[in-house]
Fold:
Amino acid sequence: MNIREVARLAKVSTATVSRTINGSDKVTPETRERVQRAIEELGFYPNTWARALGSGRSSLYGLIISDITNPFFPELVKSFEDIAVQHGQEVLVANTNYDPERMEVCVSRMLQRKVDGVAIMTSEMDPRLITEFQNRDIPLVFLDTGTVQKLTSNILVDYASGIDAAVEHIARLGHTQIAFISGPMVLRSAQVRREAFVGCLKRRGIGADWLEEGNHQVDGGHQAMARLLLREKRPTAVLASNDMTAIGALGAIHERGLSVPEDISIVGFDDIQISAFTQPALTTVRLSRDEIARVAFRALYSIRQDGGKGGEYAVRSTLVVRRSTGRAPRDAAANLQKKTGLVEA
Amino acid sequence: MNIREVARLAKVSTATVSRTINGSDKVTPETRERVQRAIEELGFYPNTWARALGSGRSSLYGLIISDITNPFFPELVKSFEDIAVQHGQEVLVANTNYDPERMEVCVSRMLQRKVDGVAIMTSEMDPRLITEFQNRDIPLVFLDTGTVQKLTSNILVDYASGIDAAVEHIARLGHTQIAFISGPMVLRSAQVRREAFVGCLKRRGIGADWLEEGNHQVDGGHQAMARLLLREKRPTAVLASNDMTAIGALGAIHERGLSVPEDISIVGFDDIQISAFTQPALTTVRLSRDEIARVAFRALYSIRQDGGKGGEYAVRSTLVVRRSTGRAPRDAAANLQKKTGLVEA
DNA sequence: CGAATTCCCGTAAACGCTTACTGAGATTCA
DNA sequence: TGAATCTCAGTAAGCGTTTACGGGAATTCG
Structure:
C-alpha cells in the first residue's frame, strides 16, 4: 500500500497525491476530492519515514527528561506534546534515568532520527554531547543549565522569587530554624535550587545551618528528614528541593510521632498534582510545567525564523500556601535548650 | 553526512559500511575496524528513516496509554522501554487522554510509522481502529480488553485474587460494611474491576451496598468518598479501583476529621510508588507494571515466530498490607444506629 | 594442479515519498 | 486573435539506507 496505488485509483500522478496530502494549493478542489476519496477507500496512511526522507524535514522534536517516574515530568511531557501536536509536530521522549550512559543513547536516538530540535529538561549534560547537536545545526533549549548561543536557548527558572516568598511566609509564621533538603548535589539543577535557598536566608540574616542532601525522590527525602530529626538542634521548618522530597519528609515526621504543621512546617517545590492531596496538603512553590513546555517549544519552533540566535526565557515560580505550614511551635527554643542541656536551672 | 562519505573515507563501498553497521559477519575484522574508525571520525549516525525504508523493518513498538499523568503509566512506560531497548527496539508512546478522538490520532501515528507491534494499555478502543491494525498484519496486545485472535494477544489481569485477598483481609479485621469506589464506568477496565469486587462480596455473602463512581483520579476519589461519608449508613472500609482514587478518599476522610484506619480502612489498587508514602501508607493490591510490560513486550516480539497465533497471558495481583487498614471500629453498629435513630432506649 | 567452494566486497536496484522542472491547456490582455 | 501569463498536473530525480546479485581472490579437495 503506497502512494502509487492511491494515484492509480484516483487516476492522477503520485505528485498530485503527495500534494493533496500536504495541502498544497496547487490542486483543484475536484482532483483533491477524488484523491481524498481514494485515500479513504484504501485506508492509506503515508509512510512517515519516506516523507521525512524525501522532504528532509522530520517534524519531530526531542524531549529529554531525567526521570519519568517523577510526576513533574509526565506533566511536562503532556503539555509539551499537546503544544507540539497543535503545531503538527511530533515528540520523541527520552528518559535518561539520571544515567549518563543512557543519556548518550538518548542523544544518539535523537541524532539518528534527525529531530528538528531538542528540549533538554534534564540537569546534567555532557558538553561533548551538546556539540554533537550544534555541529548538526539542531536547535536546543535547556532548562536552567544552558548558555545562550547560536541556535540554543535557555529557560531560566526564577527560583529566587518562589523561594523568597516561601521563606518570607515561613519567617512570618515565626520560624527561624529553617532547614533545606536538597536534591543530589551532583546535579546542577539541585545546586541552583540550594543556592537560591541559601542566598535567600543570607539576605535575611538567617543562618543556613540545616542542610541535608536528598535525591529528589521520596526515599531520599524520607532519609534526609530522618537525619534532621536526629540532630540535637531541630529545625522547625523544612524546605524541600522538590515535592517528592517533601512527601518523603512528611512521612518521616509522621513516623516519629510528630505532626505537620504543629511541630514542623514543610514546604515543597514544583507543585505536582499529588501535592494538593497529601496529608496535610503541601504548601509548595509552583513551577508551571505548562509554561515551561510552552516556552521550550516556542524556543525550538521559532528559532530558525529568528535568525537562529538563541534567547533567554524566564519562568516564574510562585508560592502556593496550603496546610503543611503553620506557626512555629512556641516552645521551639525551650525544646531545643532542654535537649541540649542548656536550660536555666 | 551520510553513508557514502563514510564509505569514501574508509575506502570501501556503501554496502560494506551498511554491513558493518548492522553487524553482518561478512566483513573482515580489518575492514570493519577501518569503517568503524571512519564512523567515529566523522561522528556519523545512520539515518533511522532511511534504514527503516530500506529494510522494511522499523524496530519500533507502539505503546498506547490513556493518561500519562496517572503514575501507573509512567512506571509501565519505563519498564516497557527498558525491555525494548534491551532488545534493540524503540518505543513510541502515545497518550490518548481518555479521548476517543486522540485515540484515532494515536492510531494513525502508529500506522504512519509502520510500527512492528502495538501494546494497547488503554481501556476503551474503537473496534474499527483495531481492524486497521489487523488489516496490516500488525501484532497487538491488549490489557484486559482484548480477545485473542490471529496476531493479537491479551493480558488477563487476575483482579479476583488480589481483590479477594483484600476483602479477606478486611473481613478478618471485622469489617462488614465495605464500600467500593469504582473508576469511570464507561471504561471497560473500570467495569472489570468493579465486577471483580462485587463478585467477591457476593461469594462471601456480603451485600455490595456502597458503590460509588470515581474517575480514577484523585479528585474523583475525593468526591466519591465525600458522598459516602454523607450517607446515613457509613461504610467502615473502602476499596478503591486504583490508588489515585484511594488517595483522594484518604483526603476526604481527613477533611471530615476522621482518621484512617481508626474510623475507616482504605485499600487501594495498583500499588503505585507514592502509595508507600501516603499518610498512612496505603494498603493496596499490587499489579506489577514490570510484569505487565514484560509480558506485553514478549507477546508482541515473539508473536511472528510463534506462527502468529495470539495468546492469553495472566498477570497476578497481590495484596500489600500497609497501614491504612485496621480493625473495624467496635461501635460501628452503634454509631450507625445512633445516626439512624434506632438506638434502643 | 585445475576445478569446486568459500569468502569478501562492490554494483545497483529498490524502499515510498517530495519537489524542481516541464508542459499542456485555460485565461488574460492589447 | 495572437502572444503572454497563469494554473494545474505529470515526469523523474533525488533522499540515505538495505540487500540481492555478481565477481574476483583465496582456499579446499581429489
Q: What stands out?
A: The CA atoms of residues 186 and 336 of chain A lie 33 Å apart. The first strand of chain A starts at residue 60 and ends at 65. The two ends of chain A are 92 Å apart (CA to CA).
